[in-house]
């Protein structure tokens, strides 16, 4: 086993770090405060190849391995978790299923501009009545000549208000339950599509999370992604990769909070000495550093497993579960080390604490990850 990054992986990490620290970190607090979608940063991320990192070069991507994506995601999220999730959704939840299940024509028409960052994507699975129970889809897809008509509502959709291309899951035959679901490629210009509202959120406030309506939206036959009845498999296999993206986002949030707290503990003096001299603080530092490292190792392993081919649901669920819960712990301890200053918006750990929470919820709650892990363990 080799724990060294390759030269290419180090180069990608350094490039992402340099860009994130120069172009994103200085504006991250303002973006959060103003709930401002970072359109200019997203454009730059596209130009740098960060919006389709694992997509083959012939389809407009950077053709890199999954660990490169994890390293870049951590660096972007360390500066701004909102930018991290915008990037993660486009890469993992939109480009990936298009490359894995799309026709050649769909790849040329949709994947290429998405991977190049010219278009932005969203993944529409969750509904008011279908959260963890993702198979309980009530959005319908009815035959309309050669094509389809979609009707229903989706909620908590990241990039929902800014996306050009949406991967939408809908029920073609409710009697078949999860075997009656299909995936569709819908353009945001389609008649009948609308953004109902944007959520006002605790964290990742610069990313948009929207409720969307599909009111008799006509979808041509050639925009069915995969096969009828295959939609649930498309959704779940896509989330396997998405969860690696969110684990990486959690790593970035944790790293930012940990580094800020470590540095603060060396400067802040109480009782005539830096607070890092006290064992109460040292134990926190030791626990934070260990959990951050363990989360990294699980996430790197999941990235490795994805690149081996075959199913990696358990590795990605473990990485997401552990990295998100570690980020909850680490950001909470960071606020504690900062004391009253940690509770103030003047210091960044307050934002990291708020941003960390969502990593335990979206792309499958911690409880859903435990369901996936337990079901894989019980099959052994
Ligand atoms: N890959 C391929 N196939 C899979 C699969 C995977 N990872 N997971 C399940 N399947 C298949 C199963 O093999 C099974 O196939 P058969 O019927 O042919 O045997 C089928 O799908 C049903 O599987 P389950 O019985 O395990 O399905 P379930 O209904 O019990 O669901 C669950 C299990 C783990 C709870 C799942 O529903 C789940 O992951 N829920 C969470 C959903 C989620 O993550 N939502 C987030 C949405 S995206 C988001 O957060 C918004 C955003 O914009 C970021």
Quick take:
This protein is of the alpha+beta class.
From the structure above, extract its key features.
10 helices; 3 domains; Butyryl-CoA Dehydrogenase, subunit A, domain 3; Butyryl-CoA Dehydrogenase, subunit A, domain 2; binds acetoacetyl-coenzyme A; 4-stranded mixed beta sheet; alpha+beta; Butyryl-Coa Dehydrogenase, subunit A, domain 1
What do these coordinates show?
The chain has a four-stranded mixed β-sheet. The protein has three domains: 7-120, Acyl-CoA dehydrogenase/oxidase, N-terminal domain (Butyryl-Coa Dehydrogenase, subunit A, domain 1, Orthogonal Bundle), CATH 1.10.540; 122-232, Butyryl-CoA Dehydrogenase, subunit A, domain 2 (Beta Barrel), CATH 2.40.110.10; 235-378, Butyryl-CoA Dehydrogenase, subunit A, domain 3 (Up-down Bundle), CATH 1.20.140. Helix 3 packs antiparallel against helix 4, helix 6 (231-267) runs antiparallel to helix 7 (279-307) and helix 8 packs antiparallel against helix 10. It has helices at residues 7-34, 39-47, 66-79, 81-101, 104-115, 231-267, 279-307, 313-338, 349-358, 366-378; strands spanning 121-124, 140-144, 147-158, 165-171, 181-187, 193-198, 209-219, 224-225, 269-270, 273-274. The two termini are 24 Å apart. Strand 9 and strand 10 form a beta hairpin. By secondary structure, the chain is of the alpha+beta class. The radius of gyration is 21 Å and the shape is globular. 53% of the residues are buried. Acetoacetyl-coenzyme A binds next to strand 3, helix 6 and helix 10. Residues 89, 123, 125-126, 132, 134-135, 156-158, 178, 232-233, 236-237, 239-240, 313, 362-364, 368, 371-372 line the site of acetoacetyl-coenzyme A.
């Amino acid at each position: 086993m080799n724990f060294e990054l390759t030269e290419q992986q180090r180069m990608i990490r350094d490039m992402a770090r340099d860009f994130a620290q120069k172009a994103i970190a200085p504006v991250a607090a303002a973006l959060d405060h103003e709930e401002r979608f970072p359109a200019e940063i997203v454009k730059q991320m596209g130009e740098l190849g960060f919006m389709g990192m694992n997509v083959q070069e012939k389809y407009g991507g950077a053709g890199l391995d999954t660990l490169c994506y994890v390293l870049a995601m951590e660096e972007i999220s360390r500066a701004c978790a909102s930018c991290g999730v915008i990037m993660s959704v486009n890469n993992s939840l939109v480009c990936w299923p298009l490359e894995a299940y799309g026709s050649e024509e769909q790849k040329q028409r949709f994947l290429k501009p998405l991977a190049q960052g010219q278009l932005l994507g969203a993944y529409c699975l969750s509904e008011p009545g279908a959260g963890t129970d993702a198979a309980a889809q009530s959005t319908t897809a009815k035959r309309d000549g050669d094509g389809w008509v979609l009707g229903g509502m989706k909620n908590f959709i990241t990039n929902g208000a800014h996306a050009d291309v949406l991967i939408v899951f809908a029920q073609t035959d409710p009697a078949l339950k999860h075997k009656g679901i299909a995936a569709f490629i819908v353009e945001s210009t389609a008649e009948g599509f609308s953004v109902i509202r944007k959520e006002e959120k605790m964290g990742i406030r610069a990313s948009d999370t929207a409720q969307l309506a599909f009111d008799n939206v006509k979808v041509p036959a050639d925009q069915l992604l995969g096969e009828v009845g295959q939609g649930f498999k498309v959704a779940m296999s896509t989330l396997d990769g998405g969860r690696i993206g969110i684990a990486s986002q959690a790593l970035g949030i944790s790293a930012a909070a940990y580094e800020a707290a470590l540095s603060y503990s060396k400067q802040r003096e109480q009782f005539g000495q830096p607070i890092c001299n006290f064992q109460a603080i040292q134990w926190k530092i030791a626990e934070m550093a260990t959990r951050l490292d363990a989360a990294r190792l699980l996430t790197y392993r999941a990235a490795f497993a994805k690149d081996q081919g075959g199913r990696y649901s358990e590795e990605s669920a473990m990485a997401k579960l552990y990295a998100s819960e570690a980020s909850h712990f680490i950001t909470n301890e960071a606020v504690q080390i900062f004391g009253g200053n940690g509770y103030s918006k003047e210091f960044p750990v307050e934002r990291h604490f708020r941003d960390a929470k969502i990593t335990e919820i979206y792309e499958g709650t911690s409880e859903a990850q435990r369901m996936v892990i337990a079901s894989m363990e019980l099959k052994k």
